[in-house]
Amino acid sequence: MRNYRIAVIPGDGIGQEVMPEGLKALHAAAEIAGGFRLECETFPWGCEHYLAHGAMMPADGLNILADFDALYFGAVGWPNVPDHVSLWGLRLPICQGFDQYANLRPSVLLLGVPGPLRDKQPGDIDFVVVRENTEGEYAGAGGRAHRGLPLEVAVETSVFTRAGVERVIRYAFEVARHRPRRRLTSATKSNAQRFAMTLWDEVFDAVAVGYPDVATERVLVDALAARFVLKPESLDVVVASNLFADILTDLGAAVVGGLGLAPSANLNPERRYPSMFEPVHGSAPDIFGRGIANPIAMIWSGALMLDFLGEKAAADLIVRAIRDVLAAGRVRTPDLGGRATTVEMGNAIVAALRAGERP
Ligand code: IPM
Ligand code: MG
């Protein structure tokens, strides 16, 4: 029996509400698929930990997590702690410290989901964004001087390394090579950003030479944003810098029905460190405590985790159960126009997992 050690970090807000549903689905899928089990340990890190101990996680947090096979993460941030403190205290140190440089964010329009785009059918939208996840605009380089004075200055420096750009672009080519359409779009802005983005373009062109089987294009990020809305069916794999992809993936989530459905995987492809699986959405203080958050993004992120661990059959079972529940349309959380609770949606997915069980 294969055994995977999973560090569970529900985090803040609705992270705590959707996490139990994610775990339920994961354990059910493991039981049905067979051959492996998940040994989960939960860490109560986040803003409450910060208020009690002055830190989002213990100082040796990364050492504690390093021994796990994967990290399953809810959400971070709460109004009583400044966002840049909570984010830089927990999520970003994990992404950077564990060199999770490739952030995979799929957008798939599923049957039964009321997407906002007129005339787009299930099957029309099925793309994945590969986000650079350790440097670029979120490298954390910069500072403020003359604080509070009229001459105050703030510098936020983007950091693009050839190695960092090359590895994420190469990873995106690998993803594209294994998809049926084999098409990779690079988001750039080299007309205005003359240094980082020209490096990005050069590296993209150089890596492309090794992938003659993948069709490529380079699109300015502003025009690409419009294409996410106007012609999403033209997209297969998109590779973009940290900030560009951050923005594009909220749009990508929106066009397929919203953040409640959007999963993500922060990957260290070489597996030197554990990778982290989390919904794209945040802690949603506006709906926390009402039990109405859609747990699908969390559950789907669990499927991405199983896939990365090598348990593809179990991962596929979860994705199929999500598809079945959405297509049936009987159980819908408020973001999908229904009245179901977080727990009801989680239960429906587990029931669909069991119903789809094959001997
Ligand atoms: C995301 C989120 C975070 C990010 C926020 C909370 C800073 O928007 O995962 O897309 O940009 O990394
Ligand atoms: Mg974002």
Which features would summarize this protein structure in a list?
single chain; 359 residues; alpha/beta; Isopropylmalate Dehydrogenase; ten-stranded mixed beta sheet; two-stranded antiparallel ribbon; 22% strand; globular; binds 3-isopropylmalic acid; binds magnesium ion
Structure description:
With 359 residues, the chain is α/β, with parallel strands linked by helices. It has two domains: 1-103 and 259-359, Isopropylmalate Dehydrogenase (3-Layer(aba) Sandwich), CATH 3.40.718.10; 126-254, Isopropylmalate Dehydrogenase. Helices cover 40% and strands 22% of the residues. It contains eleven helices and twelve strands. The strands form two sheets. A ten-stranded mixed beta sheet has the order 2-1-3-12-11-4-5-10-8-9, sandwiched between helices. Strands 6-7 form a two-stranded antiparallel sheet. A hairpin with a 7-residue loop joins strand 11 (263-267) and strand 12. The radius of gyration is 20 Å and the shape is globular. The model has no long low-confidence stretch (mean pLDDT 97). The structure holds 3-isopropylmalic acid and magnesium ion (MG). The site of magnesium ion has 2 residues, from helix 8.
